[in-house]
Amino acid sequence: MEEKCEIKKDVTELIGNTPMVYLNRIVDGCVARIAAKLEMMEPCSSVKDRIAYSMIKDAEDKGLITKGKIHYETTGPEIWRNSGGKVDALVAGIGTGGTATGAGNFLKEKNPKIKVYGVEPVESAVLSGGQPGMHLIQGIGAGIIPTVLDVNVLDEVIQVSSEEAIETAKQLALKEALLVGISSGAAAAAAIKLAKRPENAGKLIVVVFPSCGERYLSSPLFESIRREAENMTYD
């Protein structure tokens, strides 16, 4: 007998249908049973998963939200305006794919010669035809090709290792005074690779830094600094 496939097509199918479990050891004296609905087992560990999904789906069904719409209407025009229309390339890490899709399509409409580069981890290079794998670049490289991503907008996908991403993020803090996250380090590493190519001499490459580094204080990004602080001695 053929087994029923239980693999979900995407993470949204995991929202809802959370389990219930009886409380057994803190119910002394109770004459009724208590069953807990475990909403912390939602994909994002909150009952708010249901609300967020419902709002987004309703907006999509009404045509109010389309792939990359926010970045098409805001990020793309801002890059175009701030660069005076001189941007030659856009580099963005691929998480949901919204930034590359929205901003990339807007910029290519303005100038079809503009190149759009996606960034993914070497260790999970799915967009490049590889297999999903573990890595340390939070926010990108989910191991799937995101449904939001318009793969046709990408001219190339640049692979960056976790080590490169972390080291580049550190260098951005030390040398540029920019406290950014690991995915920003990955995007910067990719942009640097591109900026070293002879064919890009004199061109303007815009790289998107999606998050601040302060939320990564407990991550491998600051591990060496934590060890240094822990080993400090005082006279």
TrEMBL record:
Which keywords has UniProt assigned to this entry? Amino-acid biosynthesis, Cysteine biosynthesis, Pyridoxal phosphate, Transferase
Q: Kindly give the InterPro entries that the UniProt entry links to this protein.
A: Cys_Synth/Cystath_Beta-Synth (IPR050214), P-phosphate_BS (IPR001216), TrpB-like_PALP (IPR001926), TrpB-like_PALP_sf (IPR036052)
Tell me a GO biological process for this protein: cysteine biosynthetic process from serine
Q: Which Pfam families match?
A: PALP
Q: Which GO terms describe its molecular function?
A: transferase activity
Q: What is the required cofactor set for this protein?
A: pyridoxal 5'-phosphate
- Give the Gene3D superfamilies listed for this entry: 3.40.50.1100
Source organism's superkingdom?
Eukaryota
Q: Which residues form the Tryptophan synthase beta chain-like PALP domain?
A: 11-62, 72-210
In the record, the note on similarity to other proteins reads:
Belongs to the cysteine synthase/cystathionine beta-synthase family.
Q: What is this protein called?
A: Cysteine synthase-like isoform X3
Q: What lineage, starting at the top, does this entry show?
A: Eukaryota, Viridiplantae, Streptophyta, Embryophyta, Tracheophyta
